[in-house]
Amino acid sequence: MASAKLVCALLLCIVLSAPMLNVDALSCGVVAGDLAQCLTYLKKGGRVPPACCKGVVALKSAAKTTQDRQDACNCMKQTASKVGGVNAGFAAALPRLCKVNIAYKISTSTNCTSIK
């Protein structure tokens, strides 16, 4: 429980500092911030919180270029690895459950460089 709170606090700090960086690229902080509300679902399943789907939609809208989509993919893979306990099936189902069309499978085995 303490590690989940630490991750949430870290994500909050990253998200709050992201606008100050003034960069055009989609940062990992933005990706992690958009998906922070999904963490409980990704680990335990159940009902997807509306705030999670809102984050998925925001991430899809923010990932405008091929580089953005590849960066988001790499960030999701790295974050899932660091956080641990993410269920691959729950992660793969998230776009469908949130009614968001993503052209690639959300998985730690996804080759992010193949995303266009």
Automatic annotation (TrEMBL):
InterPro entries: Bifun_inhib/LTP/seed_sf, Bifunc_inhib/LTP/seed_store, Plant_nsLTP. This is Non-specific lipid-transfer protein. Residues 28-112 form the Bifunctional inhibitor/plant lipid transfer protein/seed storage helical domain. It comes from Populus trichocarpa. Belongs to the plant LTP family. Plant non-specific lipid-transfer proteins transfer phospholipids as well as galactolipids across membranes. May play a role in wax or cutin deposition in the cell walls of expanding epidermal cells and certain secretory tissues. Keywords: Disulfide bond, Lipid-binding, Signal, Transport. GO terms for biological process: lipid transport. SUPFAM superfamilies: Bifunctional inhibitor/lipid-transfer protein/seed storage 2S albumin (SSF47699).
